[in-house]
Each structure stands twice: as structure tokens, then as C-alpha cells.
Amino acid sequence: MKLQVYFQTEDQAEDAAASIRKYRVQDVMVDRIPESSEKNVVLIPASGIGTPGTAHPGQPGVFTSAKKLKDKFTNKDRPEYVLEFDVDPEHKQEVLEEVKKTEGMVDEKINDQ
């Protein structure tokens, strides 16, 4: 299954990529968020994965397209990079626990996958 985690910096994304490699992830890629993407997503802090209700206390989710994402955040706060990878469903929870330790943001539907 393919998962995506969004980060403010390339270093954050690369650090997260390194931390999940022990879980047999495949096709790991860090890339700048494409400005032309029209895919709508609701992003929540990765630390809020599995938390019912609000995204995270004090940090609401954000519904927007990747194209508009950069305009929704200040230069300091907005995600600029995406870490994309494939993970075997049997290792998904372990990988999500690792992702929760990062500064990343994920689609709120990540638990539905």
C-alpha cells in the first residue's frame, strides 16, 4: 500500500525515510510537492494518527489541494516535500508508529487505507 507523509524540509523527509527503512518499505521517494497537483487532501499532524475527533489539540486539519497548500501556510510552516513509499499491510502499523515521531503531516484518511 502506498503512503505519503508531508514535511516542511527535505532534511525532515529524508530523516523520516531513513527511520522507516527497517520496516521493509519499498519505492521510497522524497520529492518537492508538485505545485500543479489538484488532489484534495485533509492533512493532520502525523502525531495525531489514530486520534479520533480532532486532528490534534490546537492543530486542526487542513483541507486543500497540494497546489493551494503552499498558500495556506506561512513560509515557515508549510509543507514543501512529500515522502512517498509502499509498505506491506502487515507492517503498516509499525511504520505509522515511526511516522508519528516525526514533524510530518498525513492525509486524515491514512487509517482507512
Key features of this structure:
113 residues, 3 helices, globular
Structure explained in plain terms:
By secondary structure, this protein is α+β, with helices and mostly antiparallel strands. The chain has a six-stranded antiparallel sheet. It has one domain (2-112). The protein is globular and about 35 Å long. Mean pLDDT is 77; it is low at 51-64. The relative contact order is 0.36. It is built from three helices and six strands.
Note the topology.
Layout: E1 2-7, H1 10-20, E2 26-32, E3 40-45, E4 62-65, H2 66-72, E5 81-86, H3 92-99, E6 105-107
Antiparallel strand pairs: 1-5, 1-6, 2-5, 3-4, 3-6
End-to-end C-alpha gap: 8 Å
How many helices? The count is: 3
Strand element count: 6
Strand order of the largest sheet: 2-5-1-6-3-4
Count of discrete structural domains: 1
Report the C-alpha radius of gyration, rounded. Answer: 13 Å
Structural class: alpha+beta
The portion of residues assigned to helices is 10-25%
SSE succession: EHEEEHEHE
Apparent shape: globular
Largest sheet: 6 strands, antiparallel
Overall pLDDT, averaged? 77
Bin the strand percentage. 25-35%
Task: Identify low-pLDDT runs.
Answer: 51-64
